[in-house]
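Table S4 entry, Histidinol dehydrogenase.
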Amino acid sequence: MIVKGIKELTEEEKYSIINRNKMNLEEIIPTVKEILDNVKNRGDEALREYTKKFDRVDIEDFKVYKEEIEEAYEKVDYKVVSAIERAYENIKRFHEIQLESIKEWEIEKDGIKTGQIVRPVRSAGCYVPGGRAFYPSTVLMTVVPAKVAGVKRVVVVSPPYGKGINPVTLVASHIAGADEIYKVGGAQAIGALAYGTETIPKVDIIVGPGNIYVTCAKMLVSGSEVKIDFPAGPSEVLIICDEEAKDEYVAMDLLAQGEHDPNSSCILLTTSREKAISIKNKILELMKNTERRNILERSLKNMAILYGDITECIEFSNEYAPEHLEIITENPREILKYIENAGSVFLGEYTPVPVGDYATGTNHVLPTGGCSRIYSGLSVDYFLKKISIQELSKEGLECISETVITLAEIEGLHNHAKTVKIRLQDKIDL
């Protein structure tokens, strides 16, 4: 755990913090490519082989049927079902409002009409990590925006739990509105979604987090065949706080993010050296009686507690481009004005990251590893295509004919020019 002034960081230390947990896929690409090729060429047969090899279970039929979903409801506590339903309503409402902000529009000038229409992709695949672990929140965060966007076929794939899928995952998939559910995971599941098999028809877009093999597979299939959301790595948080922030809140928020994964990145930027040391001591105190201590002890090695003035903190945060950004200061909205890069922002002392993970309605599938510089978090927009339209009257064509003809001819595309000339032959010379 580094405790240091921002200005005191060496170039090597700063580079190490900013360029955290970059995934090295080179070593696993051949293995993942072989899996994808096998699934593409051999379909369900390859899926069965890899499921037996990696999940240690024989599955003949990967599809989940209505009876299995009904059985899942009997196994899941009502309190859990109720929590999933409440989270679903908030997530659905947020993404419905998000959809309303994406407009179709049209303008007209001089007989030239141009505009934009919006259409959803036809099908989407949502990868949900599974096996003994279960992530109902990830089901909601991937399926709900797709359904709100109007995608007709939304598929959930998740690694098997025994010969089925974890009951909580099944219940969440049903509540979210998934059209199809398949018990298959890993790189082989990504191959099935990308290329299609006898059981699993291909999809147009694949979203959702996974391990390094899943991430690598998504990147390899991305292109003309299928679209993906973005590469996702270990979870991360960056907190900007001032002297008035409560040590216990800040320390617990850092520990909460650190318990995800030994490779999680937790960064604190504060406005005084005394505050930095005080929060470090609080972290060590809380560590004595915390769950998942074995993971936290490893993730703390990636933690940096840095101090500087508020301008330095903001500049460092923008350069870091965190997945989650908490601002716990006297006036967090004033700081927000200067934030350029972040996956999702949490304002004030009563807004820890877990509220966005589960219940506020914002999406928790977010870019990591500095990718918030160029990517947004998952949203309805990922499942939509914006199609431009144009309609010209004869007068409109006349208005821009000289521009079109001149540019077409200078590029040597004379038939392009003639498509305009032939329509205006009563007005111009062919």
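The chain has three domains: 2-22+233-361, 29-228, 394-430.
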